[in-house]
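Technical note accompanying the year-one report. For the benefit of new consortium partners, we illustrate the data format agreed upon in the data management plan: each record pairs a sequence with a structure-token string. No post-processing was applied to the example shown here.
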Amino acid sequence: MKILYYLEPWIELKTPFFRFGTIRNHLHSEIANLKKSWPEAEITLVTGEAIRSEIAKQHYDFSTVNLVAIHQSELQYIANDYYAASMRSWRLGETKENIDYFRSLFEKKIGSDYSPEIVICYEASVEFLKEIYPDALHIHNMLGFISREPFPETSSLDPLGFYKKSFLNSFSKDIKARKISSEESAFLETFRTHYLREGVMKDNPFSGYNFRTHYSKLLLLPLQVSNYFAFDGCFEEGEGYKTQLDYLLHVMESVDPSIGVIVTEHGFEPILDQRVSSFLKDKYPNFIYDEQFRDVKWVSQYLLPYVDGVITVSSTVGFQAMLWQKKLITLGQSQLSPYAEHASIQDVNKNWGREYSSGNENLLAFLFTHYAPLINSYHHAGTWYKDFLVRSYERRNNIDFSFFTPIDSLASISKNYLK
């Protein structure tokens, strides 16, 4: 069976090495373990020239893989830069002319008779792959709903797409209607005890802080990354926010001043230097930010226990809000939107009393047991991954709510989380 991995070859977010972390942390071990369990699989990895060069320089062994580099200049027929190309593809799809160009480029790079059975794309806006390989199974891979310490890493292996195009969005009604079992409820409680009460809360760096002062309600706003489809693509053309500062200012202008807003930065895009944060504190008394936030890795996870809700577009902090049974407010359309208690800040101001949605317990159970495998125990365990891909390939033309079967027995899943 032929498997094509696609790791975005465009230069993204001002660095040609943006995607190398995916090679180092995930694809190197994932592909090696898959080949051990499935030696007859013919694997091709398409990526950018800088990533291929870095693989060689850092001596990562991809000797069993057909490693193909696409140069930036070969992509600029489509658009001048990654952002323009990705957003057009995400919002509008590709023109026939562009699809024909990509088909010709891939034939030149891989072979005119090359036709993979499986295409695995790592977090990229590449609608053209479905057009040039229409008979393949397309898996959209990214980190799962939890992935940062103290939590273990999970993965998302979605047959439909990312964010608003995902299985979680498309089948949200079925997921919310799914009845959680008593055993699943017990597992969630065990998980919360182990990872929240005894994990996040153990030596929590903010245990001595008093964020509330005179605020009876607190919201957490975890900023994301601008000029990237994972954020910008959650809004229609002409909507959304040009920068994370625009996003922050909109929230602060819209939220009721009686509600405190704790703001955290994304590590890839820090915007709150001393001058900016001082200006915002003067302008918005309910803006809460401490420079020490930058000293805490994955800081939002440690602030969640102290807030009443989370405002986000597509951050996985939204899923963690559900683990803490906190209020979720989403802006735009993402994988989180169907599960939010509020879809606007104005609705929060008017209807704060709306309770945490019990249907989100059904979602959490589905994530743990069906949708988001642990990376070390399942996704990067070659045998499990091979079985998943083979089974998914057989179902590729019939993707309904039954597409995801149980990852493992609940007892084994629980054991792997708690070990």
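Partners are asked to follow this layout when depositing records. The first strand starts at residue 2 and ends at 7.
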